[in-house]
Write a structure and sequence with these properties.
By secondary structure, the chain is α+β, with helices and mostly antiparallel strands. It has one domain (about 10-85). Helices cover about 35% and strands about 20% of the residues. Strand 2 and strand 3 form a beta hairpin. It is elongated. The chain starts with 10 loop residues before the first strand and ends with a helix.
């Protein structure tokens, strides 16, 4: 049996620019000090490769890693919501 779980989350901020040079550098830094590593995009679930560029996004519950395309989509959605509320 397969169960599909849909999760809604509020994006508060998309940090500009890339987070760390690439995913490999991020992973190495976290593992070196014994911290867990988020190994896939929080939004689409695409697994990161060592040379992938990653973006940091603030959502309810903390900071999460997004792939570049998902971060761009989140940024555009935030911009639209901001313009609509003005």
């Amino acid at each position: 049996m397969n169960i599909t779980k849909k999760v809604h989350f509020k994006v508060y901020k998309v940090l500009s620019g890339y987070f760390m040079p690439n995913f490999g550098a991020y992973k190495e830094a976290r593992e070196r000090i014994g911290l867990s590593v988020q190994r896939k995009c929080f939004w689409c679930g695409k697994p990161f490769k060592n040379d992938d560029k990653i973006r940091l996004v603030t959502v309810r519950g903390g900071n999460k890693l997004f792939c570049t395309s998902c971060a761009t989509q989140a940024e555009e959605q935030l911009k639209k919501e901001s313009e609509a509320s003005e």
